[in-house]
Amino acid sequence: xxxxxxxxxxxxxxxxxxxxxxxxxxxxxxxxxEFTEVLALDDGELKIGTPLVEGAVVKGExxxxxxxxxxxxxxxxRRKDSKLKRxxxxxxxxxxxxxxx
Length: 101
Fold this sequence. Notes:
The chain has 101 residues and is an all-beta fold. The chain has one domain (2-65, 92-100). It has strands at 2-7, 10-15, 19-23, 32-35, 38-42, 46-48, 58-67, 71-77, 82-88, 91-100. The strands form three sheets. It has a four-stranded antiparallel β-sheet, with no helix packed on it. A four-stranded antiparallel β-sheet has the order 3-10-7-4, with no helix packed on it. It is elongated, with a radius of gyration of 18 Å. The termini are close together. The model has no long low-confidence stretch (mean pLDDT 95).
């Protein structure tokens, strides 16, 4: 059984027990989170929403929040003495999927 949900502008394929990293939601650890934007649901029979599946809910529990490892962006233009170095760390919320209904 799996579901395709929409969260923070992205689509995720989730199953019960999966641990997924979403964009930062600002929630406390061990709190419950509910995703109501379910695009597709497969419980033996595939149900595709138009655009959402009615009555479908995916529930999860917040594991923790944190910051990802640093990604370094380096741009250099040859023979121009021009270079740019930037870093980026993504804030995330890690969620364990507990129930698909």
